[in-house]
Specification:
This protein is of the alpha+beta class and 175 residues long. It has three domains: 34 residues; 79 residues, PRC-barrel domain (SH3 type barrels, Roll), CATH 2.30.30.240; 44 residues. The protein has four helices and six strands; from the N terminus they run ααββββββαα.
Length: 175
Amino acid sequence: MRRQQYTKLAGALALSAASIFGQSVAQAESPVAFVTQQPANEWLARVLIGQLVHNTTGETVGNVNDLVLDHHGRISTVVIGVGGFLGMGEKNVGVSFDSLAFDVDSKGVRVITVAVSKEALMQAPAFEATEKTTFEKVKDKAADLGQRTVDEAVLLKDKAAQKIEDMREDDTRKQ
């Protein structure tokens, strides 16, 4: 009888301990480290993309268009859009992530700096991505479907014109 009571008591203690310490036990057993808030000194990629890039003289030389990650998931290259106006005529130039400096100015504004002139970036070779985003894939597919539709419409127009011509010839023969 006492043994049963001790077993029940041990079970009850185990359950209450699990409910009290369950969260830390579950986290300790998880192979993933969960982060609940963005650290104050770190930037989100969605904020970094579109950010202006300046050179060391303070001149705006472009903006961040994309980030390239290495096989470890770390940013290796930052793609900077240079030249053009409102995205038109802009050229993408890839620079090493390590060549950029990230800071916050006296007003609290984030500043990205690269130690190269605007002219050097304009003359740099263009960056070429080897993979496409889902948007680019869909846009290409839509352009392909649009072109096939145009081609089919031209064929149908030609067939209709030929049919009209045949009908006119038939009318002329009947007269």
